[in-house]
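== Sequence entry ==
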Amino acid sequence: EGVPQALFDLAIDARAHALAPPQGYAAITAPKVLGGIVETAGLRLSEPIQAGRFITVSVLWRAAGEAGRNYKAFVQLWDTTGERKAGHDGDPCAGACPTEGWLPGEYLEDAHPLLLPDNLPPGEYRLIAGLYDPDTQRRLSAADGADVVELDTIRISR
């Protein structure tokens, strides 16, 4: 009597925040901070990189500030003329890590599947990435005005 009783149990699942970079990512040659909130910190590609096959492009983002809202991420494959040949847009981490919850200094692994077209000629292609507001379609920009980050140049074989 007089002892408080719990009415219900409340469990809150929070995602872990990685404050150290994971292993297995190659450095980005020219990393950029987009919108003052996110920096490209690394890249990992699945093999083989061939026309007609899926590749997984994993971008390692590092939160540089608080986003305050949720953005979509994109990865695209461009030919040397800047024409888009393949791409994938989606919520970061397949929806498991919305940008609104990113903490400054946190690292996030964001995988994007790209289907390389069957008729893609062999040669060199540019991989680019970025973030955009899904309501306005406006991309986040870097201090130099660029609204994409050059991830890598890759060679496509048959």
The mean pLDDT is 91. The longest strand covers residues 54-63. DSSP finds no helices and eight strands in the chain. The beta strands are 33-34, 38-45, 54-63, 72-78, 84-90, 107-115, 123-132, 149-156.
